[in-house]
């Protein structure tokens, strides 16, 4: 919020009231994306990892466009993408919830909430310090740094999904190669069938 205020007042010459309107528009788009379009995506069974990746891509697009904004039109369009960027956090929680037992979900979400609050505090300190340092080179430089961090997050998400699917495929292959080990009832049924054929059935 602090960086957005500095950017809009310095580069687009916004007044305090204009900034308040723009900030409300930003949260309105985020609410619309999460409460209307995200349930639609879930209704059509879009996987959580795809939703998370789309959210990160939208957030990167939004920050890039906003950092390059020289007028209100481009800044307003970037906020549309920024709203869909909220998909990333929501789907990230869903992905984490699937990776732990049900009785551990509460602890996990508590840790995620705590680290989220810490990151907001640290982010405010870091980016408030970066803005005046990068402004002489490019007024949107701080947003480009944030894009770099999100690109790393997108890469880590892709790597995590690749490794998860690789492990899942290996387990599926082992089950296919050893059906008796994967399902002991198969071996027991085979033994009962053999005894029955020999006339020793119970």
User: Which ranges are low-confidence, i.e. pLDDT below 50, for 5 or more consecutive residues?
Assistant: 194-198
Cα end-to-end separation: 76 Å
What's the helix-strand series? HHHHHHHHH
The DSSP helix count reads 9
CATH architecture: Up-down Bundle
CATH topology term = Growth Hormone, Chain: A
Shape: elongated
Q: Strand fraction band? A: under 5%
What is the typical, i.e. mean, pLDDT?
84
Q: What's the gyration radius in Å? A: 25 Å
List how many beta strands DSSP finds: 0
Helical content class: over 70%
What does this structure look like?
The chain is mostly helical and 202 residues long. The protein has a single domain, classed as Growth Hormone, Chain: A, CATH 1.20.1250. Helices cover 84% and strands 0% of the residues. The chain contains 9 helices and no strands. Helix 3 packs antiparallel against helix 4 (72-85), helix 3 packs antiparallel against helix 5 (87-98) and helix 3 runs antiparallel to helix 7 (141-177). The longest helix has 37 residues, at 141-177. The chain is elongated and about 70 Å long. The N and C termini lie far apart (76 Å).
List keywords for this structure.
single chain, 202 residues, mainly alpha, Growth Hormone, Chain: A, 9 helices
């Amino acid at each position: 919020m602090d960086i957005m205020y500095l950017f809009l007042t310095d580069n687009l010459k916004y007044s305090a009231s204009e900034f308040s309107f723009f900030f409300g528009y930003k949260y309105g788009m985020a609410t619309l994306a999460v409460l209307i379009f995200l349930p639609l995506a879930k209704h059509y069974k879009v996987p959580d990892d795809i939703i998370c990746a789309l959210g990160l891509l939208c957030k990167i697009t939004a920050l890039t466009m906003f950092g390059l904004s020289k007028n209100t039109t481009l800044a307003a369009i970037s906020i549309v993408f920024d709203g869909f960027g909220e998909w990333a956090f929501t789907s990230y929680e869903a992905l984490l919830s699937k990776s732990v037992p049900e009785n551990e979900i509460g602890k996990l979400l508590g840790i995620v909430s705590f680290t989220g609050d810490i990151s907001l505090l640290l982010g405010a300190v870091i980016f408030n310090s970066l803005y005046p340092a990068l402004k002489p080179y490019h007024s949107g430089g701080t947003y480009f740094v944030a894009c770099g961090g999100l690109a790393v997050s997108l890469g880590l998400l892709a790597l995590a999904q690749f490794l998860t699917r690789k492990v899942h495929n290996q387990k599926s292959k082992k089950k296919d190669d050893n059906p008796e080990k994967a399902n002991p009832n198969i071996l027991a049924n085979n033994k009962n069938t053999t005894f029955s054929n020999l006339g020793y059935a119970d």
